[in-house]
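Researcher: Batch entry, complex prediction.
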Amino acid sequence: MICLKVILPDGSSRDLDVQESPIENVLLSLGINPAGVIVARNGLFVPGDSLVRETDVLRIYLISHGG
Amino acid sequence: MMKTPADQRTICCDSCSLPAVSLDPLSGAHFCASHFNARFEDAVARTITESRMILPGDRVAVALSGGKDSTVLAVLLAKLHPDLRDSGLVAITVDEGIAGYREETVGSACKLCERLGIGHLVVSFGDRFGATLDAMVRESPKRACTICGVLRRTLLQQAAAEWGATKVATGHCLDDESETALMNCLSGAAGRISHAESGPGAGVPRIKPLRAMSEKDITLYALLNDIPIPRAECPYARTSLRAEVRGMMGYLEYRYPGTAAKVVEGYSGIAESLRRHRTPLPARRCTLCGQPSSGEHCQCCTILRMVGQGPEPGAPTKRSGQV
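Model: Structure tokens for the complex:
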């Protein structure tokens, strides 16, 4: 089965069985606040209302605080 | 010629046909990397200009922790104010002495200053106060943010004054400002709300060129422009009230975009109103160190006494780099 690969901020990854879906929904399903992260789809930064599908790799960058 | 994205799902920039990297949740507008950068830099430049933060002849000390906000600030000041680069811009890094965290950010700050060609001062709690933050809070880590905040501010002010700075630029962003506003309201201390950060007795005036920018946009700007930002977060940060307030604000900002800006705007109005009705306190000086103070002892001396470190004014500032 082909799944969406999500690389989490800590470097670990999750495979998700999703149909074409807004990134925002994927983040919420993982318990991640979309306002607190930046995402790259297949290596390119994309806005949060972009769509992902099962063949994509989604990398999530957590916004570090302070500094 | 109109460019067509290869992927049909690609959302295009509202100002050109290039792929968007960012969505403004308030306006619904999308921006490509180039237009995002231009918009970001314009906004910071406008904040500086409209508030007359940097004037001809100013000598600006950037508080450079090495984290993302201060790193982006240093990069932008060097870019937006090339006239400062000769001798009007310096970075000051305070090494609080937090094992496993500060080494990386101090190293990152040193490399950045070399790259930008600006002077760099490194001052440490150990040198100036006789103990690291780790040592000061060994018995009670929950006090770390309070202790660190006061001592870091004091050390930054001292180093900036010694260098001859006319302004201290800090990387406080919109998220920081909204969290501080909410925390001050939660504490119920009207005096803290009406407290002015600049003015007689407040030391070298502080400026916050990133105060209108969100942490999310600052992070994206850094990522898009290959600005190195350490991923490590301060180990004490998660124990603070600020961390809880940040969680609340993050949720509200997602549910109701623009909340942080509205909180800051409303808070500024309340603070200004309180200031107008406040009776000015008589000018006093700390009986221990002689610095301006609202009470018998300044906050710095009070904290140092609390952690068993007597105030030691006049210790030389350790300098590194090309100043």
